[in-house]
Amino acid sequence: MIKLGLTGSIGMGKSTVAAMFADEGVPVFDADAVVHQLQGPGGRILPAIEAHFPGTTGPAGVDRPALGAAVFGRPDEMRALEAIVHPAVREERAAFLNAHADAPLVVLDIPLLFETQGEAQVDKVAVVSAPPEVQRERVLARPGMTEDRFAAILAKQMPDAEKRARADFVIPTGGPQDETRAVVRCVIACLMPQSGG
């Protein structure tokens, strides 16, 4: 099995690219989706989050604005939250890999792959990238996003140029989706040459 780490900064189109891999029949582990599930209604880490951050969870799961307010700009609290979330995500990833043990290729969609030294867990890395103006337009179109929040998120992420330099593959998303899909297919063909592309 080849484990391909898929990463990219905010607004680069990573979710779109992950869906393209899934469309081609490649199992995709979406770390963000798993976090949403773990923190959603009945999520298994809710009790630990509520214990550390009282009043941030309810019947609908984590109250994102409340939890965000509890950790934003507070590194110690952010680390406390990560200490709850990250081990649970690692367990879910192990279960995913176990369930797809026969797959020749799997994609691990990990937003902060380089920032969390996650490249050691994968065989190859694909970085999703778009021009800065495209990224900015996409991100600022999101509900509740502001220039300040965007700047704060970017400050926590490794610069796109550095991610591209460290990647085995760069998947561009600034142009038509057909072009992006063609690159995704090339990456799959490159990693699974026995499939005949």
Main sheet characteristics: 5 strands, parallel
CATH topology: Rossmann fold
CATH class designation: Alpha Beta
Distance between the termini: 17 Å
Cross-sheet strand order for the largest sheet: 2-5-1-6-7
Helix/strand-derived category reads alpha/beta
Mean pLDDT reading: 93
Number of helices: 9
CATH superfamily: P-loop containing nucleotide triphosphate hydrolases
Number of domains: 1
Low-pLDDT sequence parts:
none
Order of helices and strands: EHEHHEEHHEEHHHEH
How much strand content do the residues show?
A: 5-15%
Could you tell me the radius of gyration in angstroms? 17 Å
**Fraction of residues in helix:** 40-55%
Any overview of this molecule?
- 28% of the residues are buried.
- It is globular and about 50 Å long.
- Helix 2 crosses helix 5 (75-99).
- It is built from nine helices and seven strands.
- Strands 2-5-1-6-7 form a five-stranded parallel sheet, sandwiched between helices. Strands 3-4 form a two-stranded antiparallel sheet.
- It has a single domain, classed as Rossmann fold (3-Layer(aba) Sandwich).
- It has helices at 14-23, 31-39, 46-52, 64-71, 75-99, 132-140, 147-156, 160-166, 177-191, and strands spanning 2-7, 28-30, 57-58, 61-62, 105-109, 124-129, 169-172.
- With 197 residues, the chain is of the alpha/beta class.
- Strand 3 and strand 4 (61-62) form a beta hairpin.
